[in-house]
Design brief:
The complex is a heterodimer of chains A (384) and B (242).
Chain A: H1 3-14, H2 16-52, E1 58-62, H3 76-84, E2 88-102, E3 108-116, E4 128-129, E5 139-143, H4 144-150, E6 157-164, E7 167-179, E8 189-192, H5 194-200, E9 217-222, H6 228-238, E10 242-246, H7 247-252, H8 257-289, H9 291-299, H10 304-334, H11 347-374, H12 377-380
Parallel strand pairs in A: 3-8, 5-7
Antiparallel strand pairs in A: 1-9, 1-10, 2-3, 2-6, 2-9, 4-7, 5-8, 6-7
Helix pairs in contact in A: 1-2, 1-10, 2-8, 2-10, 2-11, 8-11, 10-11
Chain B: E1 4-17, E2 20-33, E3 37-41, H1 48-55, E4 63-68, E5 71-72, H2 78-88, E6 89-92, H3 104-114, H4 120-132, H5 148-160, E7 166-170, H6 178-195, E8 198-202, E9 214-219, E10 222-227, H7 230-238
The chains are: A alpha+beta (384), B alpha/beta (242).
Chain lengths: 384, 242
């Protein structure tokens, strides 16, 4: 064991109560940072999951709709025009609305109801059961999250409550399939054929007799997925009154998505900054208390490198213990959270948060390390 | 045959003070042989602590030379002086001597670790030395679990364990009662003599001089008197605190 490691570990072990307290503070910061990261990921996922999982490279919007799905309204002729273009493998209409499923216990489950065509981009892969058979079928494919929150299974019938004009009407649909990972606009999703969607969706009095569904956007699967920019330009130039966007643009323009992610990320950054200050403060106070001791170490022949490295190792060990405890606590707590709380522990985001947390220890303690290295033994021992 | 372990040649240390300059050490020269224990005494402000800091390679002289084992530390880089402190010098301080989170044994062994000599033989020597200093039952005690006298004895063991050329002690009895102070200095002197080290002790307590071979008295930065005979030294020691 190197001299610095020896000093660092001996001090931690012999003052384990004090260092454990600091590690616990770091653990709480870790808990907070990981939960904020998970919350950001969860909220983001709930908002964008359906769009980011689309089996498509482009999304076509109404021109000047600012790439906002709910603001865009397209008609069937636009869908046909898009389908006729060269380079397009598939084009699927997507119609969106919110509705509620009546549950047997009298409660309601709010869901995003998407009208999409079977076999076209827009309908995700069915992992259990089957997709609906006709565009008029009174059938529905549900997201696993709907099943988790309601006990609804493939083969069950569900009742949709929908406001038609001024009255609530009830529609019965048969659950024929299950898909997963399809949350959209903070709600789990159900998929129905476009005509069923038009019939079931909440409507105003003026729209009550409407039978041909409005299309919000069209999901485009390209023959050559690498030609996104070329095809975007072709669609914009060829089809009138539309604007095409890639998936990333579509996600960033989901109402509130960017603002929400920015808020959550800011919270995470500030928590990390607080961590830097807490760790920095603790180690600075500790170094100030140890000035005579460091003076002795230097006077008897310890180099600055030994003293500085011992301080760095100590900070890293305490930070690693704190982050380890925090990670464990986060995992344990996460087991008890209901699926309604949007927490998603994404491996990449968590790994980034942990790396940032491991970095804030040395970053916070940097000032104290520099201070330790600069301590003059003469002054520390009051020999000058 | 004793050899010169430490030689101080015309050392001057000048500090700037209130726009002027003051010689804290003013043209001091002396030699200390291996196996010789020397006391550096003088009133407050006489320059003895500055002299000790120069001998400990913690301060460089403005002029003159300090030779330890023939190496001139006044011309050395900071890096070389760190190595010199580690290998050639043993040091005990007034207080805060020990690393508080290391046991008595670990504190002594730390000097061996610094010098890359913490082997089985080194560890055995640590135990022997601490036993010689009456600390066999305190090997695994932390400094906070020991008395001031015991801590000073551990510091003496640490100062000697790596067989340095020069052993320096800055007021080693400052925080001890009279009885413990006599014990500590007597043990220190015995070990200096037995191990053939050159020992220099800065003290304001002239009674402690009875255990040394020579007394160097400083005043206003100058070496004003040297007491060399036993009679002179005992007369000084019986004179009491400076």
């Amino acid at each position: 064991m190197g001299l610095s490691t020896y000093l660092a570990l001996k001090e931690i072990w012999r003052n384990r109560g004090r260092f454990l307290l600091v590690a616990l503070v770091i653990a709480l910061i870790t808990l907070l940072v990981l939960f904020i990261a998970a919350l950001g990921e969860g909220l983001g996922t709930n908002n964008r999951q359906y769009v980011s999982n689309l089996d498509a490279q482009l999304v076509v919007f109404l021109d000047k709709s600012d790439f906002i799905i709910t603001s865009s309204r397209l008609d069937q002729s636009t869908l046909k025009a898009v389908r006729r273009l060269d380079g397009i493998a598939e084009a699927g209409p997507i119609s969106t609305s919110s509705t509620a499923i009546l549950l047997p216990d009298g409660k309601v489950l709010k869901v995003s109801m998407l009208g999409v065509e079977s076999g076209r981009p827009g309908l995700p892969p069915v992992i259990e059961g089957r997709t609906y058979q006709t565009q008029l079928a009174k059938e529905v494919v549900i997201d696993r999250n709907v099943a988790l929150r309601s006990d609804i299974k493939v083969g069950d019938e569900i009742t949709i409550r929908s406001t038609q004009g001024t009255k609530d009407e009830f529609f019965t649909l048969k659950v024929v399939g299950l898909t997963e990972g399809q949350a959209y606009f903070f709600a789990p999703t159900i998929f129905v054929p476009p005509s069923t969607w038009e019939r079931v969706r909440p409507k105003s009095e003026a729209e009550a007799s409407k039978t041909i569904p409005d299309i919000n956007v069209i999901a485009i699967k390209l023959d050559d997925p690498s030609q996104v920019e070329v095809m975007k330009a072709r669609i914009n130039a060829t089809v009138s009154n539309v604007q095409a966007a890639d998936i990333a643009t579509t996600i960033n323009n989901i109402p509130g998505y960017s603002a929400q992610q920015g808020t959550v990320q800011t919270q995470g950054v500030f928590t990390l900054l607080i961590g830097v200050l807490v760790i920095g403060g603790f180690f600075q106070i500790q170094i100030l208390q140890k000035v005579p001791q460091i003076g002795v170490l230097k006077a008897i022949g310890s180099s600055n490198a030994v003293v500085g490295l011992a301080a760095v190792i100590q900070i890293m060990v305490v930070t690693a213990i704190g982050v380890g405890i925090g990670g464990l606590l986060t995992y344990v707590f996460s087991l008890f959270f209901p699926p309604t709380i949007p927490l998603v522990f994404n491996g990449q985001a968590s790994a980034f948060a942990i790396a940032a947390l491991l970095f804030i220890g040395p970053a916070g303690g940097l000032v104290s390390v520099i201070y330790a290295v600069r301590i003059e033994p003469l002054k520390a021992l009051r020999l000058s | 045959m004793s050899t010169v372990a430490l030689e101080v040649r015309n050392v001057i240390k000048t500090f700037s003070l209130d726009g002027g300059k003051i010689n804290a050490v003013d043209d001091v020269s002396f030699k200390v042989n291996s196996g010789e224990f020397v006391a550096l005494v003088g009133p407050s402000g006489s320059g003895k602590t500055t002299m000790l800091s120069i001998l400990a390679a913690l301060l460089t002289p403005t002029e003159g030379q300090v030779l330890i084992d023939g190496q001139d530390l006044s011309r050395m880089s900071e890096k070389k002086r760190v190595v010199l402190r580690r290998e050639k010098i043993g040091f005990t301080f007034q207080s805060n001597n020990l690393i508080p989170y290391l046991t008595a044994k670990e504190n002594v062994e730390f000097m061996l670790r610094l010098n890359g000599k913490a082997d089985r033989a080194g560890r055995a020597r640590t135990q022997e030395l601490l036993a010689r200093l009456g600390l066999s039952d305190r090997l695994h005690n932390l400094p906070a679990q020991m008395s001031g006298g015991q801590q000073q004895r551990v510091a003496i063991a640490r100062a000697l364990i790596h067989n340095p050329t020069v052993v320096l002690a800055d007021e080693p009895t400052a925080s001890l009662d009279t009885e413990r102070a006599y014990q500590v200095v007597e043990t220190f002197a015995n070990l200096i003599h037995e191990n053939q080290r050159a020992g220099i002790m800065v003290t304001h307590d002239l009674r402690m001089c009875q255990y040394v071979d020579r007394v160097l008295m400083m005043r206003d930065g100058k070496l004003v008197q040297v007491y060399e005979t036993k009679d002179e030294i005992m007369a000084l020691a019986n004179g009491g605190v400076h």
